[in-house]
Amino acid sequence: MEQLRLANLEYTEALWIMLGATLLLSIVFWLMQRWKKRTLALFGTASLIGNLMPDVSRTRPVFKFILLLLSLWLIIIGIANPQIGSKMEEVKREGVDIIIALDLSNSMLAEDIKPNRLTRAILAVSKLIDKLQGDRIGLIVFGGEAYVQLPITTDYSAAKLFLSTISTDIMPTQGTAIGAAIELAVQSFGSNDLEGQEETKKTIIVITDGENHEDDAIEQAQLSLEKNITIHTIGMGLSKGGPIPIYRRGIQTGYRKDKAGNTVISKLNETMLQQIAVAGGGSYIRANNIQTGLVALFSELNKMEKVNIGSKVFTDYEDRFQYFLGLAIILLFLEFFVGEKKNKYLRRIKLFD
Fold it and tell me: Which of 66, 84, 134, 160 is 20 to 30 Å from the Cα of 251, by its Cα?
């Protein structure tokens, strides 16, 4: 275990409060001093006022203001809660690397699986994330093109957050480019393995209806298997298919039609997804209205060999707010006992007479 010190602020937004309070108090103090100076000027010159009010000090109000401002800074910094990390410990985990490739083409809005294919797919991925322990997960979305939605990570909260933002509206190009999604997923694994450690087992889960297939996904699946990356496919949809609804501002306005005016029926391309799974050394699972193949898929993932991976995290942060609040109290007491008039004892000291 490696020892080191790491500073941290728990509530950094408090620093903005400190900046605003400093500006406000400085302006108020400047205006008050200016008002006092103008008011005293009504009674005579500065030398006359000095003779009439010999005990008045010009520097003490400034000194008291500086003490008050320092006290405020220390209080706000205390509220921000400075912390010190005293340890950096190595946490061992066992798991595999998983990238979900999720189809966002319009056909995923078909309602042959209730409430629709895409909603059921998102729920399935969310449940899968809940079951993960130590595994890394990434998210790729695809239509006519493929995009990385979430780089591979162990932050499951972030994964679910990104998952909740997914819709067909974020996909600029329609289609079902499964091959592009597989190729991007392979690239996204990158070099996540740590030097000197066993290579992490990797898998890609493609969730799609497979319709309007555009590229050679089977070839990409074979290439991924050559790199020891397995591919599982989940087919979203039923053999009878269903129409594709059209939405305007969240309200369904009808169904997609072809050039002849007939309602387009989207059907699951099951044969294609089976071939991709075979080429990728994985399994094909078909979803339906009762289940989305989550149990079978998780069983396949558990069959994969878990690899020990060490990751280092900072732990044991210790709060240090009490020191700043204590010093602020001392300065406030000092400010309270410092008067604005000159000290009569110090005034008797005349070093240069």
Answer: 160
The domain spans of the chain are: 2-86+316-348, 97-305
183, 161 in Cβ contact below 8 A? no
What is the per-residue pLDDT across 212-226, written as a single tens digit (0 to 9) for each? Answer: 666 789 999 999 999
Per-residue model confidence (pLDDT) at position 196: 44
Q: Is 64 strand, coil or helix? A: helix
- What is the CB neighbour count within 10 angstroms for residue 300? 16
For residue 334, pLDDT over 50 is answered with: yes
Residues in contact with 197: Cβ distance below 8 Å, sequence separation at least 6, in sequence order? 307, 308, 309, 310
Q: What is the DSSP letter of 227?
A: T
User: What is the tens place of the pLDDT at every residue in 247-300?
Assistant: 887 788 888 888 888 888 888 888 999 999 999 999 998 887 666 666 677 777
CA–CA gap between residue 327 and residue 333 (Å, rounded) = 10
- Cα separation of the two ends of the chain: 67
Instruction: Return the CA Rg of the chain.
Output: 34
Write out the two tokens for 137. 């997960």
Query: Quick one: pLDDT at residue 195?
Result: 45
Sequence letter at residue 18 = M
Alpha helix segments (H runs only) across the chain = 14-41, 46-52, 59-80, 117-131, 156-164, 178-189, 217-226, 270-279, 294-303, 321-337, 344-348
What span, in angstroms and rounded, lies between the C-alpha atoms of 346 and 339?
Answer: 13
Instruction: Look at the domain 97-305 and name its fold.
Output: Rossmann fold (3.40.50)
Q: What is the DSSP string of 290-332?
A: S--SHHHHHHHHHHSPPEEEEEEEEEEEEE-HHHHHHHHHHHH
